[in-house]
Amino acid sequence: MQDISELEIYIVGRVGRLTLNRPKALNAVNLNVAKAMRNQLLAWQDDEQVDAVLVTGKADRAFCAGGDVKSVYQSGKEQGIGPGTVSAELFRHEYELVSLIASYSKPYVAYLDGITMGTGVGISLHGSHRIASEFTRMAMPETAIGFVPDVGASFFFNQCGPIGRLLALTGKTFDGYYAANLGWATHFLPRSEGSKWMTILESVDWQSAWAAAGVREIDPAKPSTTENLGTEESRQVYRIDREIAEQCFASDELEECLQSLQRIEASGSAKLSEAARECLAKLKKRSPTSLRLTCELLRRGESLSLDECLKMEYRVSQACMRGADFFEGVRAVLVDKDQNPKWQPSSLMEVTPGDVAHYFAPLSTELELDQLPETR
Asked: Phi then psi for 41, rounded to 5 degrees?
């Protein structure tokens, strides 16, 4: 077994296993982990002794809570931003890793037991098999820290329809039932059976171990396959969110979304009115710049491939490093934890189309995210 402390790398039977081992950081992916994961996946892709790859998180609380944005914050404050810094390299290696996972030639299995957010979504959703547990909790909460949904979000949220725009803008957290209906979770395995599954892998091939442990395929059209992924309350939340999304988030114009929410809040049924009020409350707290950028990312991403979306997101990520809101958002939410960010600008009206366009400007040739061919 190879162990770089933060990422355990080993082979069990004929399965290559990657275990994120940063439990105190909720298994957030830092630069070392992103590099090591990508290098190991490339090595196993041509290894005839490895039939499949399984990715898990250490401890029960989280599969992966995201990218290690605190390290970006700290590095930016101490060393600055720009080429060669953590702010440039972490996002580059994460996006290259996502591209590799999406095109991986072998089964790539992620067990989403616990918190799965941000980069945690990126290193799972693009793989072939995503197994949820009853403790799965997913979100793309980047607008709350002055950033944008990334790791391919401008691609995969568009595949969800209007509810994708709701989730991208609000950063709402949801459970395995919700994920199954989005198509984000493909299978279910209760936490209590997880260790059994890992043990069986030692003696039989991965598909036999899969069956023996009771991994169940999810079909949202068959309630029996999703009943253990949520509660009646969470199932209702999904149904209401779907209706709110259809009525209020079908437009890619943010003002139209807000006006629709305000209309539903004022005159909708009690449950719809409450859901609209919740969305409006969340959006009010988000970075105005992040909300504008997210809408534009989704609009542009509609006609792009995943790799084209990743290239676009990388440009935006680096522009965010040059702005104020990312560092202020991380400070308020993750460092000082006062939950009171001072956004600049502080209102949507102050974020102009020209401001938004600036974030999508091409980088210099040597800095663009173009080096993806070797992952094909």
From this structure: -65, -40
Q: Residue 262 domain-assigned?
A: no
Question: Each residue of 129-161: pLDDT tens digit?
Answer: 999 999 999 999 999 999 999 999 999 999 999
CA angle, 43 then 48 then 53, to 5° = 60
C-alpha 321 chain-centroid distance: 19
Overall number of domains in the chain: 1
User: Residue 150 burial by CB count (10 A; 0-12/13-18/19+): exposed, middle or buried?
Assistant: buried
Pairing of strands 137-139, 174-175: antiparallel
Question: Which segments of the chain does DSSP mark as H helices, in order?
Answer: 31-45, 69-79, 86-102, 119-125, 153-156, 162-170, 176-182, 194-200, 206-213, 232-248, 254-267, 270-285, 288-301, 306-322, 325-330, 353-359
Does the model's pTM come out above 0.90? Answer: yes
- The β-bridge partners of 10 are 17
DSSP string, 90-152: HHHHHHHHHHHHHT-SS-EEEEE-SEEETHHHHHHHTSSEEEE-TT-EEE--GGGGT----TT
In terms of Cβ atoms closer than 10 Å to its own Cβ (0-12, 13-18, 19+), residue 209 is buried
- Asked whether residue 267 is assigned to any structural domain, the reply reads no
Contacts of 367 (CB under 8 A, 6+ apart): 83, 88, 318
The reply to whether 367 falls in a domain is yes
Whether 190 is covered by a domain: the verdict is yes
Q: pLDDT, tens digit, for every residue of 82-95?
A: 888 999 999 999 99
Query: Cβ distance 53 to 109 under 8 Å?
Result: yes
What's the CATH number where 127 sits? 3.90.226.10
- Give the residue numbers spanning the domain of 187: 2-230+281-375
